[in-house]
């Protein structure tokens, strides 16, 4: 298993476990998934406070706490969606700094952690008070409540602002060989976490079902027929779709955040991940050259930004950030 070291000196396994689809109500299956993950060298577990309205954090936190006696691990969670856990409903998007600090305390309790390894903003818009959010992250980090922070979003203008004005450690966004819009966000200044590596099942041998159910109206300007043609083209190279998908991400030097719902699925995905290493680089390069390069069309411009800190304070923060590297 390959590992990446973040700018905050945390080692993250290249194959990471996305926790949103884990079988929370099947304790035996869940325990087996987590144990197998540790045995295979997976050390990063990705969750969010909004997943099952806090239940995901609580259940995963409990299991990881038990296994943490024998294995080292990193847990990442997300914040910014205010919700009612009793009513099981989202209330509103809330990136306010004070709310984030309160939500982190609740996440720490659910996760059974004194410190959260990685905290990500679960979205973000150009109309947020981003300086206020960044200030909250920095305060939480300086006070020892979190070790590092990042953002999970697809909006270029938001990503650009955080790159320029914060010490963001990771960026999470969708990336795979077909939905390659995230390629323009690859950057050596942070660790890239790729979600959706198998594109909702399209890059698996169950692609026909995915085309009929999840992509029946097309996607990203592709018709369903065009998506099918891409899949057929990839399959003509003689490798499993999953292995081509993983090899593409391996070559991009990103963390692959893969969700599973069973031990069998995790075993299968890991087998494809390990086998992918043997695929020649030129095979994936040739396949990629036959697929259009896509870009996110919306949320690209930096405009109408709300500012909490005066310009001189923001500039001082930027200088301090650059000198600290």
From TrEMBL:
PROSITE patterns: PROKAR_LIPOPROTEIN. Pfam families: Aldo_ket_red. Residues 17-291 form the NADP-dependent oxidoreductase domain. InterPro entries: AKR2_Oxidoreductase, NAD(P)_OxRdtase_dom_sf, NADP_OxRdtase_dom. Residues 305-314 have a biased composition (Basic and acidic residues). Residues 315-325 have a biased composition (Basic residues). Residues 305-325 are annotated as: Disordered. PANTHER family: D-THREO-ALDOSE 1-DEHYDROGENASE, NADP-DEPENDENT OXIDOREDUCTASE DOMAIN-CONTAINING PROTEIN. This is Aryl-alcohol dehydrogenase-like predicted oxidoreductase. It comes from Nosocomiicoccus ampullae.
